[in-house]
């Protein structure tokens, strides 16, 4: 029964951590580690429940070292069985599709070490406090403590089984960090369990073993705290698609190439001929400041959930021009960015903004692109004014009929304005 409950909880928790649409082994490892936030406290509550029953059943009799540690070790075997089943289910799902990256056994071992710590805390708590409510207290207490540590300072989050959040698909996972964390978790778990056993059995040999476990935990903790906070990014061999522009993403997100490409093709065609034109779209991590080749623009794709391409396009277009907060230019900027995104043109808060939207909507697609080539510097510099959109609406009423064709249809009269060309 305990295995079934832990299996269901593990699958639910792991599925909630998976990055939607990402086909990478690192995604599976992070999901399995993330599932411990839910299965760990449940395992602690289960261990506390068994410990309470065992404490009441001993009747104060003296225990040998093996009798003392046999029950918590058996609980750990049960918990490991449920974790193994969770790993197998996710592995089958993973093997049905082509996965990028590599499987890190050290991440799985660290997860088991984390479960051992949960079980040990639950067992010791249940033995020391043999009350009916203790299992609930142990489960909730473990959840609150580990959640607080994981969201605490830069060093406190290394004490709990987990990965640094938010997880960066480009950063990769460190086998060395997992090994150090495993040493710490196993050491502190063994120290707690053997320390408790030394008190129960009153044997010096068990106490000596507990002290050795403390040394191992200290070595692991020292390595964890001296490890650099940032891990160098892995070299990624992009998955690319070219038609008619080159779109490149992390190989774990290659299933999103079609949607991302179709979205950015429209933007590229509208920016053609401007200083912002591009022929290659490359997914990059958010904190990456590496230089790009000419004609390449970076995009940020966190996952492949529904609407991911539109979100990436919105972020890219929004970053083309400077912010124009609390100025009339903001309304004109919104008109242009809405067109670049392929959205309906906004009316804006002021009459001149609504006039600009109406004026811009009267242009053909070719005329809008020519207009952007001419006024691109004003667009990105937040210098757009009413004169860029046919003048002030107060003057436009009487002159609109005469000025509109002249502004959008007579290239010969003003050759520097490309509106009206084909």
Helices and strands in order, then pairings?
Layout: H1 2-17, H2 25-34, H3 36-58, H4 65-95, H5 105-128, H6 134-150, H7 175-201, H8 204-226, E1 239-242, E2 246-249, H9 257-271, E3 280-283, E4 296-299, H10 308-318, H11 329-341, H12 351-361, H13 365-380, H14 393-409
Helix pairs in contact: 1-2, 1-3, 1-4, 2-5, 3-4, 3-5, 3-6, 4-5, 5-6, 5-7, 7-8, 9-10
Transmembrane segments: 34-52, 73-91, 103-121, 128-149, 169-197, 204-225
Keywords: Membrane, Transmembrane, Transmembrane helix
Which properties best describe this structure?
mainly alpha; 422 residues; elongated; 3 domains; 60% helix; 4 strands
Q: What does this protein structure show overall?
A:
The structure is a single chain. With 422 residues, the chain is mostly helical. The protein folds into three domains: 2-226, no CATH class; 239-312; 329-409, no CATH class. Helix content is 60%, strand content 4%. The chain has helices at 2-17, 25-34, 36-58, 65-95, 105-128, 134-150, 175-201, 204-226, 257-271, 308-318, 329-341, 351-361, 365-380, 393-409, and strands at residues 239-242, 246-249, 280-283, 296-299. The chain has a four-stranded mixed sheet, with helices on one face. Strand 2, helix 9 and strand 3 form a beta-alpha-beta unit. The longest helix is centred in the N-terminal third of the chain and has 31 residues, at 65-95. It is elongated, with a radius of gyration of 31 Å. The N and C termini lie far apart (73 Å). Keywords: Membrane, Transmembrane, Transmembrane helix. The chain crosses the membrane at residues 34-52, 73-91, 103-121, 128-149, 169-197, 204-225.
